[in-house]
Write a structure and sequence with these properties.
heterodimer, A: alpha/beta, Elongation Factor Tu (Ef-tu), domain 3, Rossmann fold, 2 domains, six-stranded antiparallel sheet, five-stranded parallel sheet, 5 helices, 11 strands, globular, B: mainly beta, Sulfite Oxidase, Chain A, domain 2, six-stranded mixed sheet, five-stranded mixed sheet, 3 helices
């Protein structure tokens, strides 16, 4: 259930890995059962904590990929080569294993199902994860608010959720535009986000969309600048950036 | 009580005792902002200190501000998103200099930024050599992504307290929530007590 108010103390909860889904060669979705999970809004994240036998612990933040669904939570984790936490989550953690987390965190970069405003989602790489939670929550709520997703990936094989996104464009008011920065499908152009893409795939500023951008810093800066130059209000743009995080 | 993560040994890095709990050492300088980077031009930049009565106690334009006595600062910084960075080098003006001679009964401050960001801090945390308004990072003008032309620098608290694009301080007799604090983040934000979120 989505809650209106910011909660009190965020306690650590013990989640259990129920199953995993391989999304790409380097991204894996963890389906977690989280007894005591208080519910979340699409776009929020959790802190995950790993603890070694000698008490050493490490924490990282991960975006929630699923819409609100009781005490079940999906996190999609992009493996960072030589990272400390992400390779454990994607390569070591097995179904039945416990993992500590707390949340939900972040009441800014959120989409609420009662919203009636058109939405533009702009994703760079694994920045699609919290935006996918919005797309799923939108479908689960039966919302008829139109969504547009601009999704920049290196190659088609790097696209997380590709099949599900394709299916959802047929079933709900979701329009999808891929950008391929390294190599596209045969015949498709490659390139970074630019003014032509914004003009073709984003909403007009007259539609006054809510805009969510998530990805690496350079991508987010570029996308936000382009949207502002195209006439969108800076106040309508919410960003979530990640630098290298291991 | 923690749950042991089977097969997790972790990576203890050099300088472990300089890392607050739950933090890891980062060599890059990640960027976190809630919205677009606001364009801030030093030609019409200003920094103001407003008293609890709403009166302007101090005001500097860019030229006046950068003519104030500045200090070289070397500090470890700690972001609530878990990364820490050691020995970052800044140049800026101490809040002791900026607050010198300002008469106030305020116990708190709201930092205000271009773009609308705010964050609240206790006034004593800005005094006695603990806080600056910084305009150089690693010997260069502070990049806009990192809060340039000038940001608050309060390195003993989580880095969201070090407001980017800062343009003023409002002195307050009662504490109020800033931007992230209203959204569930801690009012004080001491990394060594791991005060990330309200209730920590």
């Amino acid at each position: 259930m989505a809650r209106a108010a910011v909660p009190g103390r965020l306690n650590w909860l013990v989640a259990t890995l129920a199953e995993t889904k391989e999304e790409t060669a380097t991204a894996r979705t963890l389906v977690l059962d989280v007894p005591g999970w208080p519910g979340h809004l699409a776009g929020q994240h959790v802190d995950v904590k790993l603890t070694a036998e000698d008490g050493y612990s490490a924490q990282r933040s991960y975006s929630i990929a699923s819409g609100p669904d009781g005490q079940r939570l999906e996190l999609t984790v992009q493996t960072i080569a030589d990272g400390e936490v992400s390779p454990y989550l994607t390569e070591v953690l097995e179904p039945g294993d416990p993992v500590e987390l707390r949340g939900p965190i972040g009441y800014w970069f959120v989409w609420r199902p009662e919203s009636t405003t058109p939405v533009l989602l702009v994703a760079g790489g694994s920045g699609v994860v919290p935006l996918m939670a919005m797309i799923r929550a939108h479908a689960d709520a039966g919302s008829q608010v139109p969504l547009r997703l601009i999704y920049s990936v290196r190659t088609p094989a790097d696209a997380i959720y590709a099949r599900e996104l394709s299916e959802r464009t047929a079933a709900s008011p979701l329009a999808l535009t891929y950008l391929y920065t390294r190599e596209g499908p045969p015949g498709a152009p490659t390139g970074r986000i630019n003014a032509d893409v914004i003009a073709a795939a984003a909403w007009s500023p007259h539609d006054k969309p809510d805009i969510f951008i998530c990805g690496p810093t350079g991508f987010v800066e570029a996308a936000a600048d382009l949207l502002i130059k195209a006439g969108h209000a800076p106040e309508a743009i919410k960003t979530e950036r990640f630098g290298p995080t291991s | 009580m923690s749950v042991i993560s089977r097969g997790f040994s972790g990576r203890r890095r050099p300088g472990g005792d300089r890392l607050p709990p739950g933090q890891y050492l980062e060599s890059g300088f990640p960027v976190l902002s809630a919205g677009p980077t606001p364009p801030v031009n030093t030609a019409n930049w200003s920094f103001t200190i407003t008293t609890e009565a709403g009166e302007t106690a101090r005001r500097w334009d860019w030229k006046q501000f950068t003519a104030l006595p500045a200090e070289q600062i070397t500090k470890d910084i700690h972001c609530v998103t878990k990364w820490s960075k050691f020995d970052t080098h800044w140049r800026g003006v101490s809040l002791d200099t900026l607050l010198d001679g300002v008469t106030t009964n305020a116990g708190y401050v709201m930092a205000r930024s271009y773009g609308g960001y705010t964050t609240n801090l206790p006034l004593p945390d800005l005094r006695d050599g603990k806080a600056w308004v910084a305009y150089e990072y690693e010997g260069k003008p502070l990049h806009p992504e990192h809060g340039g032309p000038a940001r608050l620098l309060v390195p003993h608290l989580y880095f969201w307290k070090s407001a980017k694009w800062v343009t003023g301080l409002d002195l307050m007799t009662r504490d109020r929530h800033g931007f992230w604090e209203e959204l569930g983040y801690h009012d004080y934000g001491d990394p060594w007590r791991e005060q990330r979120y309200q209730g920590d």
